[in-house]
Amino acid sequence: MENNNKPAVPSLFEWAGGMAVFEKLFDRFYDKVLADDILEPVFKHMSPQHRLHVAHFVAEVLGGPKLYSESEGSHFQMIQKHLAKHLTQQHRKRWMELLLETADQLQLPDDPEFRSAFLAYLEWGTRIAVLNSNLDNVDEDPDMPMPKWDWGVPGGPYLG
Ligand code: HEM
């Protein structure tokens, strides 16, 4: 029988703390990127909106509002932004390292359930970014939907 008293499972976006958390996370992160020897050359020409767009993209993937796809871009456009950037595993690893360091500094939830899902998405997304960055074009539907990431095997946060 269905248990109607079960609390609703929050999205990863809600559990992380909402949009202000994502905007601050990527703002601090790109400050670090621009001060980093390995990543600065890759990002030195990024637009002033870049950090906000990436924050909104990731927030949307994790269950947040559709700010990115409804007014800033699309999954297809995001893929296009990485084409021919010739990213390496060294770039990707430093990107991951700085983002996770920032997440710790801003005290994003550090429960195993949230962090394993968050890390899984970042691993997936950054590896695809590297793959696409070594292509000149991709044969994808321009209307392809945004990816959606959820809690995975744990199914939700540990609520005690
Ligand atoms: C989960 C992983 C990632 C996501 C969600 C993501 C998302 C995005 C988005 C949304 C844009 C477009 C921003 C805009 O509209 O201004 C973008 C552009 C870009 N991304 Fe990523 N990205 C990821 C990983 C990476 C990695 C690992 C690198 C390199 C180490 C990278 C390098 C770039 C570059 C160079 C641009 C173009 C910047 C410019 O406009 O000059 N991305 N990314």
How would you explain this protein's 3D organization?
The structure is a single chain. With 160 residues, the chain is mainly alpha-helical. The chain has a single domain, classed as Globin-like (Orthogonal Bundle). Helix content is 56%, strand content 0%. It contains eight helices and no strands. α2 packs across α4, α2 packs across α7 and α6 packs across α8. Protoporphyrin IX containing FE (HEM) binds next to α3, α4, α6, α7 and α8. The site of protoporphyrin IX containing FE has 24 residues, from α3, α4, α6, α7 and α8.
Integer average pLDDT = 95
Pattern of helices and strands: HHHHHHHH
Largest sheet: none
Proportion of strand residues: under 5%
Oligomer: single chain
- What Rg, in angstroms, do the CA atoms define? 16 Å
Per CATH, the class reads Mainly Alpha
Low-confidence regions = none
Tell me, what's the shape? globular
Number of domains: 1
What's the number of helices? 8
Percent helix range:
55-70%
Kindly state the number of beta strands: 0
- The CATH homologous superfamily name equals Globins
CATH fold label: Globin-like
Protein name: Globin
Organism: Mucilaginibacter corticis
GO molecular function, one term: oxygen binding
Binding site for heme: 53
Features of this protein?
single chain; mainly alpha; Globin-like; 8 helices; oxygen binding; metal-binding
Compact overview of the structure:
With 160 residues, this protein is mainly alpha-helical. It is built from eight helices and no strands.
Helix-strand blueprint:
Blueprint: H1 12-16, H2 19-34, H3 40-43, H4 50-61, H5 67-72, H6 75-82, H7 89-105, H8 112-133
Helix pairs in contact: 2-4, 2-7, 6-8, 7-8
The protein binds protoporphyrin IX containing FE (HEM).
